Amino acid sequence: MAINFQPAKRINPLKPQDPAKYYANPVYKDKITMRKIATMIGTQTTISIPDTMAVLEALTQALPFFLIDGNIVYLGDYGTFRITLQSEGAATPEELTSANITGFRLLFRAGKEFAKKLKEMEATKV
User: Fold this and answer.
1) Which stretches of the chain score pLDDT less than 50?
2) What is the pTM for the complete model shown?
3) Which of 8, 81, 116, 126 is deepest in the core (most CB within 10 A)?
4) What gap in Å lies between CA 49 and CA 54, rounded to an integer?
5) Of 15, 50, 19, nearest to 35 (Cα)?
6) Domains (ranges, CATH) in the chain?
7) DSSP assignment of 31-80
């Protein structure tokens, strides 16, 4: 299986005077909904599609709860989720406050089996 990509022209914001370069940009086919995932899981297992939907919905409720509470969420071979912070620097630890925090990011690190699949991927230019 291969992921499609197309060239995207970009200027280096740190060196705007340099010539633009082309970078690989993924071409997405569609947005896959939880219902579609539940249908696929439901047809491949003995779990009904409504039960699968309920589990996926419960997961979407549980993940933010645990992440916001300061936990790293480990989902086995699927991977690990954690929150990272973006902040402005402060001269001393005492000067660093929550006002320095400029954003939050969700970081996902693929588990072994998932990462193995990613390494096996190929790319096709379209």
Assistant:
1) none
2) 0.74
3) 81
4) 9
5) 50
6) 2-12+20-125 (4.10.520.10)
7) PPPHHHHHHHHHHHSSS-HHHHHHHHHHHHHHHHHHHHTT--EE-TTSEE
